[in-house]
Amino acid sequence: MDLEEAEEFKERCTQCEAVSWGLTDEGKYYCTSCHNVTERSKEVINSDIIPNAQIKALNRGLKRKNNSEKGWDWYVCEGFQHILYQQAEALKNLGVGPELKNDVLHNFWKRYLQKSKQAYCKNPVYTTGRKPTVLEDNLSHSDWASEPELPSDVNSPFLESGMESQSDVHTRKSLRISKALQSETSVCSGSLDGVEYSQRKEKGLVKMTVPQTLAFCYLSLLWQREAITLSDLLRFVEEDHIPYINAFQHFPEQMKLYGRDRGIFGTESWPNYDDIYKKTIEVATFLDLPRFPDITEDCYLHPNILCMKYLMEVNLPDEMHSLTCHVVKMTGMGEADFLTFDPIAKVAKTVKYDVQAVAVIVVVLKLLFLLDDNLEWSLSNLAEKHNEKNKKDKPWFNFRKWYQIMKKAFDEKKQNWEEARAKYLWKSEKPLYYSYVDKPVAYKKREMVVNLQKQFSTLVDSTPTAGKKSPSSFQFNWTEEDTERTCFHGHSLQGVLKEKGQSLLTKNSLYWLSTQKFCRCYCTHVTTYEESNYSLSYQFILNLFSFLLRIKASLLHEEVSLVEKELFKKKYSVTKKKSKSKKRRR
């Protein structure tokens, strides 16, 4: 930026009417008072090389190389933008529509940059000492409310390939800082604003982190009502289908990371379900997003569809689906108002769709088998005797046999999962270092580690490690053709149901609430969830479903308690109305 070369430009600024111009790295004139960038560019005449030829500066945005060959000048928000781009591409490869990246996620990110005053505003942070002011006419709340779907932006940074895409004019204008600040920050971090970003503390500000990128992805999936739940998203991250751990190693080679960038982009733990769920609500509230599209009965996230999916995965009878649908209807959990996410409501909360569906299945199992380590085994004895006598008829569901088969499959799957986690290499191929001076040492250490790993793997096991598994919505697969394992999808529930008129009732007339401790002496008292307080069959079912969703058993236990609360509240109100009507008849 040379002020002397811009003195020949004498026009007044269209915003502040000042005549004080400078030159950007792209050769365009910008106002030094209000930072307004014009479309006019300085013409450079180089008669030494090509006589009478006029050359204009190439528009390279922030992709300008340092004289010290330390890479591009880049900002923290560009790093997170690149991670979001890679995650959106991964979701696209998993079958998600391209509009999620080009329309929804891009507009969420654009709105975040504006709300956090990093771009799309008059005075962004790190530019001047003045307090930034967000443009009121850009992405206002009324614009969101008037559109049922997010509009597409032709200047989307996600349309081109990664960070090579040209930035928007607003972004280039808002991400300018002084040369003195650049030289100061480049010593402590690879990014220009790494030090300021890590030190920035504002009330109500949601700072971007690597886990926040998953919150953005899940919000986009939820807006599009895609067939991916939060637990599926985290499992795909765990299986390395979606970039998360060491996502910075996918940055272009010219984007150098060191110093403060380690704490911003480095992750050394797997994403937690409850943590990402809370961050999702936090981000949606910060962005002032409108009510999301309704979750109707034909949506994948509706509990009736998710219940069928999880019943198939854990090898339970198909006849249980009608019972789960009945529970969903009685509790009102299938209503669109209950399921639809509304961030601008008084209490912003979204439904844990996968956890809720699994909790409904657990409640149905308790209604059928009680799960007290007694009744389920008695009913299993009856089913076993019936199946021996009537081998040609449709077999009754045997809970004991199902328990044995599922426990063996679950133990094998969990052991493989634990071994894969233990063998996971947390160190990235692109090492992080504290300063540019430490780069040779960091790369030398990384090279030594790789060599030692190769030698150790050769000594321990000569077989090559298995490649990355192909993504799948199911972790357990059950088919009738499998002769080694019994498939219970087609088994009957006649052994646990009885006919009364035209309706079916459960043979089990007892029930114990999950908020109470169930003892052998049948005393009950309120307690928090501990495995020692509950039956072995109930513990196994919670552990099985918790493993499928990658959540804690206590979280599922709490959701089961919420379903029971809604179920028995509605059931109590119905019986109360019936008793009142009988009294009136008398």
Automatic annotation (TrEMBL):
GO cellular component assignments: RNA polymerase I core factor complex; RNA polymerase transcription factor SL1 complex
Localization: Nucleus, Nucleolus
Rrn7/TAF1B N-terminal cyclin domain residues: 80-252
Keyword DNA-binding among record annotations: yes
Superkingdom of the organism of origin: Eukaryota
Keywords: DNA-binding, Metal-binding, Nucleus, Transcription, Transcription regulation, Zinc, Zinc-finger
Entry's Gene Ontology molecular function annotations: RNA polymerase I core promoter sequence-specific DNA binding; zinc ion binding
Similarity comment: Belongs to the RRN7/TAF1B family.
Name of the protein described by the UniProt record: TATA box-binding protein-associated factor RNA polymerase I subunit B
